[in-house]
Design goal:
The complex is a heterodimer of chains A (77) and B (338). By secondary structure, chain A is an alpha+beta fold. Helix content of chain A is 40%, strand content 27%. Classes of the chains: A alpha+beta (77), B mainly alpha (338). Chains A and B meet through helix 2 and strand 4 of A and helix 4 and helix 6 of B.
C-alpha cells in the first residue's frame, strides 16, 4: 500500500497536482491512499517551503511545482 | 550542453528577433489595409495600439520569463534561507530584498516560507523584506514596464520596490513585533529539507526555462489581453490630458487616493500595467501611477488573509501600514522630481 500526501493550502496549482496524482493512480491501478494536507504546521514538519509538494510514503518527491504525470508514474514504480 | 540544443535555441532567438522588429509595420498594415481603418480615427488608433502591443508584450514576456526561469534554477528557497539565517539585520534586509527578486515565489507559498524562515533563525524583519520584494519586484512587472515605458521607468520601479522592501522590513524589525507572530509558529519543529538536491545539467535548466514560459505566460496572457484592450480603449477615446486634472501632479490628494484604491485591489502586473500606460499617456503623473501600481501588486487582500494564519492582526496592520507609507513617499518623490 502506497501513501501519497499532497501538500498545499488549496491553491489552484495544489488542486491540479492532486488531480494528476489521482489520474495516474486510476490509470496504473496502483493501490494508494491520497491525503491532501492543508495544515501549515504539518508542511513545516515535512520541511516544505514551497507548495504544492508531493510526498510518497513520507519522502518528499517534488515541491513548488505541479509535477508531470510522468514524474508521478516514476515515483510509483 | 548538447550542440543540437544550442542550435535550436540560437535559431529560436534569431526568429524571435526578426519577428519582433516587424511588429510595428505589421500592426499598421493590418489596421489600414486589412481592417480598412483610418489610423487617425479613435477606432483606428485603438485597434492599431492593440495589434501592436499584444504581440510585443507577449514576445518580451516569453523571452524574459525564459531567462528568469533559467536564473531561478540556481536559487531555491532552501538556499535563500541558508544565506539569510543568522545575518545581521541591516545587511540581511538588503540581501533578503534582492533574493526576493530571484527566488521562485508564489503567494500561496508565502506562509510555508514564512514559517521556514523564522523558525531557522531568519529575523522577522528580514523575512518580511523578502515577502515584500518577492511579489512586487517580479519579472512580469519589469518586462511590461520596460516594453511600454523604456528601461528608465523599469529601473526606477525596481529600485524603489527594493528600497521599500528593505526599509519596511528594517522598520518592522526595529519595532520588535515578534510577540504578534502566532505562538505556534515559533513552537513548530521544522523538518529537515528532505528533498535531495541533484546537480542540474544545462539541459535541465533550459527545460526549467521552457516550463516557466508555459506556466507563467499560460497563466497571464488573458490578463495581458484584457489589460491592453482597456489600454487601447483609453488610448483611442479618452482625450489628451483628461487625466491631468484627476491624477496629475497638481492634485496632491491623488497619491494617497491611488494607494487607498490600489491596496484592496488584486491583479497581477500583467493586467494592471497596460492600463497604467494608457493613464500615463493621458496626463496622469508618473509618481501617482507608480504608487497605484505598487499598491495593487505589492499589497493584496488575498495575501493578507493568508498571512493572518501566522501573523496577528496587529502585525498585519503594521505590515500593510508601513508598506503603504513607503509607497506613498515614493509616489510623492516622483511627482516632485519628474
Amino acid at each position: 500500500m502506497v501513501n501519497i500526501t499532497v501538500y498545499g493550502p488549496g491553491c489552484a496549482k495544489c488542486k491540479e497536482t492532486e488531480k494528476r496524482v489521482r489520474h495516474v493512480l486510476e490509470q496504473s491501478g496502483v493501490e494508494a491512499t491520497v491525503i491532501h494536507a492543508t495544515d501549515f504546521a504539518e508542511m513545516a514538519k515535512a520541511g516544505i517551503l514551497m507548495t504544492p509538494a508531493v510526498a510518497v510514503n513520507g519522502v518528499v518527491k517534488s515541491k513548488g511545482r505541479v509535477p508531470s504525470e510522468d514524474d508521478i508514474r516514476s515515483w510509483l514504480s | 550542453m548538447k550542440l543540437s540544443l544550442v542550435w535550436a535555441f540560437s535559431a529560436a532567438g534569431a526568429v524571435w528577433w526578426l519577428v519582433y522588429h516587424q511588429l510595428q509595420p505589421g500592426a499598421s498594415w493590418l489596421t489600414s489595409s486589412v481592417f480598412r481603418l483610418d489610423r487617425k480615427t479613435h477606432l483606428g488608433s485603438a485597434v492599431e495600439f492593440f495589434l501592436f502591443e499584444v504581440p510585443k508584450v507577449l514576445m518580451l514576456l516569453m523571452l524574459v520569463v525564459f531567462g528568469v526561469g533559467i536564473v531561478r534554477s540556481f536559487f531555491t528557497p532552501a538556499r535563500t534561507r541558508a544565506m539569510l539565517a543568522g545575518r545581521r539585520e541591516s545587511v540581511g534586509n538588503v540581501l533578503a530584498a534582492l533574493l526576493g527578486v530571484v527566488t521562485p515565489f508564489c503567494s500561496c507559498s508565502a506562509v510555508p516560507l514564512f514559517i521556514g524562515f523564522v523558525t531557522t533563525g531568519v529575523p522577522l524583519g528580514v523575512t518580511l523584506s523578502f515577502l515584500i520584494s518577492a511579489p512586487m519586484v517580479n519579472e512580469v512587472a519589469l518586462v511590461l514596464l520596460f516594453g511600454l515605458f523604456g528601461w528608465q521607468v523599469a529601473a526606477i520601479y525596481a529600485g524603489m520596490g527594493l528600497a521599500i522592501a528593505i526599509v519596511a522590513g528594517w522598520t518592522i524589525g526595529r519595532l520588535k513585533l515578534e510577540r504578534f507572530v502566532e505562538p505556534w509558529v515559533y513552537a513548530t519543529q521544522l523538518g529537515a529539507d528532505s528533498e535531495h538536491e541533484d546537480a542540474l545539467s544545462w539541459g535541465d535548466r533550459l527545460s526549467a526555462g521552457k516550463e516557466a514560459v508555459r506556466d507563467i505566460v499560460g497563466r497571464v496572457w488573458p490578463f495581458v489581453l484584457a489589460g491592453i484592450a482597456v489600454g487601447a480603449g483609453i488610448h483611442g477615446y479618452v482625450p489628451e490630458n483628461f487625466m491631468a486634472s484627476i491624477m496629475g501632479k497638481s492634485a496632491w490628494w491623488s497619491v494617497p487616493l491611488a494607494v487607498l484604491i490600489g491596496v484592496p485591489m488584486y491583479s497581477n502586473a500583467a493586467g494592471i500595467i497596460p492600463v497604467v500606460q494608457a493613464l500615463l499617456g493621458k496626463g496622469a503623473a508618473l509618481g501617482t501611477v507608480l504608487a497605484f501600481m505598487m499598491s495593487v501588486i505589492g499589497l493584496s487582500l488575498p495575501e493578507t488573509i493568508i498571512l493572518r494564519k501566522v501573523l496577528m492582526p496587529q502585525l498585519i496592520a503594521v505590515f500593510v501600514g508601513v508598506v503603504a507609507i513607503g509607497i506613498l513617499i515614493v509616489g510623492y518623490i516622483f511627482n516632485l522630481i519628474m
